[in-house]
Please model this.
Amino acid sequence: MRPVALRAVALAAAAAALALPAAAQNLGSLYDAARGFDATYQAARAQAEATTARGAQARAGILPQVGVAASASRTDSEIRTPAGTGPRDFSTTQVGVQATQALYRPANWAAYRQGQRQAELALAQLQLAEQDLIVRVGQAYFDLLAADDNLRLIRAQKAAVAEQRDTAQRNFDLGNATVTDQREAQARYDLVVAQEIAADNDRQVRQVALDQLVGRTGARPWAPADAQLPPPAAPADLGAWLAQAEDAHPAIAQARIGLDLARLETDKARAGHLPTVDATLSYGVNRNPQGTLTTTTRTTVDAAQAGVQLNLPLFAGFAVQNRVRETLALEDQAAAQLDGARRSVAQATRTAWLGLASGRSRVSALAAAEASSRSALEATQLGYQVGVRVGLDVLNAQAQLYQTERDLAAARYAVLLGELRLRQAAGTLDAEALRPIDALLAPPVLEAGAAATPGLAR
Model:
């Protein structure tokens, strides 16, 4: 096949791929997509790289400083003597190399240690950004699933109400029902239509939120294949989670590093009272092809010099003392921020652990309520068939069942998201935590007429 034909086929295939709806994906694949697209995470990653590079700059203070200097000049002069006046013009060229090595500079070594800690700070900042991205993707993912379920159940309720409305209309036409029954059925139908419009709008908003996060159009998340939940996250003891958060949470690590940086800043400030010692080495060549002011002989001077330079500060207008006072206050601030980070992490861990435990209990309660609501609906339908219940009773029982099913699905999603939030609160959340959740998900099965509406497949 010719190259032109190959390009045409490739373009046609790309156009066809763009025309297809986005394939349904699990939570892990959408997180991978978000890592390469989300602007907040990209900014955090760039900031981490900048922090690492800024820390590496401090190493320059303990390494040799080498420079090359060169110059060329022309001197035009007149020399006056008792014997007379005459011009004296000559050229001069200079080339030199100078190197300096710090031997004793406490401030530079403190800055170097600060740079090393800043590399660790960048890692902690990036871990926080990654954990935040995982939770944001999970939140958007399960929000869309919940919106899908809500819309699907409202449409099912709409179909049941429409059937009841048609039945009431037929009975009214035959004279077997009053106008009140017919109008009540119509009012119930109009209410469900309004709920469907609101639910459809909410679903579209959730879809846009997920699409913007992962950089894909029409992303369709997989739904749980059954009612199973992942096993409770280990360890089962809250105290173990709190200890784990104290050891591993990036926010606490970031606050610890901040305190270390503040202490090193105090060391730098106190070094303002201390002497500095540098080793110097230089080599230069000075050439005068036409001589100098004192001689007409061509000269070339090669000079090498090695030495040690001592600087001892005596008085700087109390700048050093005030700088030390400032850094000591900043140390207190960093220590308070570390205490605050520990308390915030402990509170978030307790909240996430208790929320997850109550969420699992709520799922169990709603599962029992769903079974009871289903039995109640069957009993109501049987009573309607034998004439002891009216159509409105059936509609109320159906609405209760649909609401319970929706609440149960939302509670399951909350538990799955709660697993991620607990690990985030403890500082141990990473992409591996998505695997147990993905194991519960399955690709959707497109229902009739659902191909044009992503997210309504189950």
The chain is about 65% helix and 15% strand. The domain at 22-63+105-274+319-442 is CATH 1.20.1600.10 (Outer membrane efflux proteins (OEP)). Strands lie at 24-25, 65-81, 84-104, 220-221, 223-224, 276-288, 299-311, 441-442.
